[in-house]
TrEMBL record:
The lineage of its organism: Eukaryota, Fungi, Fungi incertae sedis, Mucoromycota, Mortierellomycotina. It comes from Mortierella alpina. InterPro entries: AB_hydrolase_1 (IPR000073), AB_hydrolase_fold (IPR029058), Carboxylesterase_BioH (IPR050228). Gene3D superfamilies: alpha/beta hydrolase. Residues 67-322 form the AB hydrolase-1 domain. This is AB hydrolase-1 domain-containing protein.
């Protein structure tokens, strides 16, 4: 992470909104982002860093971001800060799924013991209805991409276009759902550590794992800052724990709904551009499965991020922003981001 990269994010003006969810009694926390002043250039604005900082502002719609399971809205900030629509003053929004991040804190007394992915899509529509005045570009990662796609399927014409980052959705014959105690990803979530004496200890322990060592340092710091909360033990001792509990992460993996299949089977109902970005070594999307997803799209395109897995937005936020920027420019403008993308592809 460069000093300039961190400076870009800290310049963002962030407003927080509590939005009623699609289900009575639930709320979601949403951040809106703008730049209060627009820097002309930064040291990050070279093609080799694949930044969208050096750009002629384009007229683009608002952008709405949906996070992956186990994560939270602020993890989009290193990407948000580098997108050309941020420079043009277009508003950007990122919200926490009802059982994640600050939304999980808001809903702590009403969180349920099962989770249907379709509720994420319905809450996405609720956020748009109450905060977004134009058809947004929808950007989602994994579970969040599923929610963006399902929101468009539920209400066609909601979005102007969609960026589905390593989307989690499967054909009906892919039988991957299982009870909580028999689901491999849910079991991993339930076994993870979820309490530390402070964020410093949490960082030290997380960095012992290759999973977290692969992350961009800024993204890891954001995860620690915004994905955890202070708690008191029964003995009065202080510590930190995850805002999205490991139980809620686990039941989200073991979703009892149909959206994980419906998003794939109904892709052909989507009439707007759908841009899929996937990691070359994704644990979710094999080359054959990606081709199946692309073939389902009426107006689809696909790029592969080299030397990357399913979590490449956390590992490569600069490169991720470049891919998204290139897609945005193809729809609403033109600048040098395509050259930056070609530079990444050739590495």
């Amino acid at each position: 992470m460069s000093v300039a990269a961190s400076a870009l994010r800290t310049r963002l003006h962030v407003a927080r909104h509590i939005v009623p969810a699609a289900t009575p009694g639930f709320s979601v926390m949403c951040n809106s982002y703008r730049f209060p002043s627009l820097p002309k250039t930064t040291p990050d604005s070279v093609a080799g860093n694949a930044s969208a900082s050096d750009t002629t502002p384009l007229t683009s719609p608002p952008v709405l971001f949906n996070h992956a399971n186990g994560f939270h809205k602020e993890m989009w900030e290193p990407i948000i800060a580098r997108l050309p629509s941020t420079r043009s003053g277009s508003p950007m929004y990122a919200f926490d799924c009802r059982n994640h991040g600050d939304s999980a804190v808001l809903n702590s007394s009403v969180l349920e013991k099962t989770f249907d992915w379709l509720t994420y899509a319905k809450d996405t529509l609720s956020v748009i209805d109450q905060l977004v005045t134009e058809k947004p570009l929808g950007i989602g990662h994994s579970f969040g991409a599923n929610a963006i796609l399902m929101a468009e399927i539920l209400r066609p014409g909601t979005f102007s276009a969609i960026v589905a980052i390593d989307p989690t959705m499967f054909p009906a014959h892919f039988k991957i759902q299982a009870p909580l105690d028999d689901h491999p990803l849910a079991n991993l979530a339930l076994r993870r550590r979820d309490h530390w004496k402070d964020r410093a200890e949490a960082k030290t322990k997380l960095l012992e794992k290759p999973f977290f060592r692969a992350w961009d340092p800024e993204t890891l710091d954001i995860y620690l800052e915004h994905g955890m909360k202070e708690v008191s033990g029964k003995d009065g001792s202080l510590g930190v724990t995850l805002k999205c509990s490991k139980f809620q992460e686990a039941i989200t993996f073991a979703s009892d709904g149909s959206a994980i299949h419906d998003a794939f089977e109904r892709l052909g109902e989507i009439n707007i551009p759908v841009y899929i970005i996937a990691g070359e070594h994704s644990e979710i999307n094999t080359p054959d499965l990606l081709q199946m997803k692309l073939e389902q799209c009426k107006n689809g395109s696909l790029d592969i991020v080299k030397d990357a897995g399913h979590l490449f937005p956390m590992e490569k936020p600069v490169e991720t922003a470049a891919y998204v920027s290139s897609f945005m420019e193809s729809l609403w403008g033109s600048h040098r981001s395509e050259q930056a993308i070609e530079g990444i592809r050739s590495r």
